[in-house]
Design brief:
This protein is of the alpha/beta class. The protein is built from four helices and eight strands. The protein has one domain: Roll (2,3-Dihydroxybiphenyl 1,2-Dioxygenase, domain 1), CATH 3.10.180.
């Protein structure tokens, strides 16, 4: 079977703060952000790459969708791999934004072998690992 990660969903207490983190600090591309702000989309997203999104759900999205299922507290972290050339600019943006590095840089093993990685928290407290591979 061939598979790939399509998207992750983060529930945010402050969607605009989360967008500022993922778009301005991390440097991801906006997806449906203008539509969300106009009220034409139920949530905005940050594009990780051509096939992967980080959806940012406002808490009221669960109620509007009529769902009793809300955010589940069993995710330890998720990881975003960046190009080696984007690593130092990312660290600089995180530092400029006052984002504390909880761990790292350290060599950690992942889907493509060993990589240099750090752990930070987004504005809602989600633990995010950023890494780059030498190859």
């Amino acid at each position: 079977m061939q598979a790939e990660l399509d998207h992750i969903v983060l529930v945010s207490c402050n969607v605009e703060a989360s967008l500022a983190f993922y778009l301005d600090v991390v440097g991801l591309e906006p997806y449906r952000v203008d539509e969300y702000r106009r009220g034409d989309a139920p949530f905005p997203s940050a594009r990780v790459n051509a096939g992967t999104l980080i959806d940012v759900f406002p808490p009221e999205f669960w109620r509007k969708a009529g769902s009793e299922i809300g955010p589940q507290p069993n995710l330890d972290h998720y990881c975003v791999a960046v190009a080696a050339g984007d690593w130092l600019p990312l660290l600089e943006r995180l530092e400029s934004a006052g984002v504390a590095v909880e761990m790292g840089p350290a060599t950690l093993h992942g889907a493509r072998g060993d990589a240099t990685a750090i752990y930070v928290r987004d504005p809602d407290g989600h633990k995010v690992e950023f890494r780059y591979y030498e190859q």
